[in-house]
């Protein structure tokens, strides 16, 4: 299976993935249920309506068992045409390059549209978010933090919005081509930029970082899209830094989601007289770590000078590559999705896509191969060489 789909890898499997993600009336949870029951999308579409109706309503099962309607086929063709352009990619849930961190979400996207350098997904990520109507001082702070952290190996993740988001992206770009770069998670299709004033910034990010979206091409900005975007921002990152935020703010939603996913939450304090400091102060009262400099974050999360690769052993030490190369092919994708930090069986099932009945056998094989170890509390941990 390819690491991802690009212009020279248009296959029937990709067509099936696109159709599954675009299928009218098929909820993401239903699609994942079908994947668990039937296998990859081509197997889903080769199944009879009777088989599919065991998992989804019969009317929907009939729809999937037939050829796609004209409008759906047009959407698939549009995505395939978009994919033919340089540096355009589609990364599906089954691909090794799919960000393993997103599997912590209960509603991980079936696929992601990407424009730019997929390599930045291999770096540790730190999200920087905040107010759209940020002060000049707040924007300068976001830029400075982003530039410093990107130069230390942290990929800066944000949402391409006005204010703090755009300042964070600019700071990461300012750190130069040798830095860890930046990822803009968008609340629109990748063929549209919102706000339109950020088209030049989006172009720079695609040239030196990555634009990422779960939304189909042609999807316009809608209010309910941005909380969905924010959960991707939170999940991709090891930690979230809130620079300025009002008491009721989308940035606080991102911070809450990050906390629920076990990510670190950082906040910069401000004047007690500033409305844009109240959200940060509320986070600090709730347990977010107060930071005054980028070094505070580095002290907490570590100074990462090299990329952390999720999808390949090419940058690993020789002993670890030997261990990896000796594994059977079916075990490698499983090991790639297991962190060196302990994971519960539930987390492992989300990350690997394995069923509860399948997981123990795979874990036993990885343990016998010396790749993982069980912990007394029931969690599992990948072993370092």
Task: Provide a quick synopsis of the model.
The chain is α/β, with parallel strands linked by helices.
Structural write-up:
- The strands form two sheets. This protein has a nine-stranded mixed sheet with strand order 1-2-6-5-4-3-7-8-9, with helices on both faces.
- Helix 8 links the parallel strand 4 and strand 5.
- With 385 residues, the protein is of the alpha/beta class.
- Helix content is 42%, strand content 11%.
- Residues 305-322 have low confidence and may be disordered.
- It folds into three domains: 12-116, no CATH class; 118-301, Rossmann fold; 318-382, Winged helix-like DNA-binding domain superfamily/Winged helix DNA-binding domain (Arc Repressor Mutant, subunit A), CATH 1.10.10.
- The longest helix is centred in the middle third of the chain and has 16 residues, at 136-151.
- The chain is globular, with a radius of gyration of 21 Å.
Number of domains: 3
CA gyration radius, whole angstroms: 21 Å
Helix- and strand-based class?
alpha/beta
Please write the string of helix (H) and strand (E) elements: HHHHHHEEEHEHEHEHEHEHEHHHHHEE
What is the CATH class name of the largest domain? Alpha Beta
CATH topology of the largest domain: Rossmann fold
Mean pLDDT: 87
Helix content: 40-55%
Mass-distribution shape: globular
Unreliable residue runs: 305-322
Distance between the termini: 27 Å
- The CATH architecture name of the largest domain reads 3-Layer(aba) Sandwich
Strand content: 5-15%
User: Main beta sheet: strand number and arrangement?
Assistant: 9 strands, mixed
Number of helices: 17
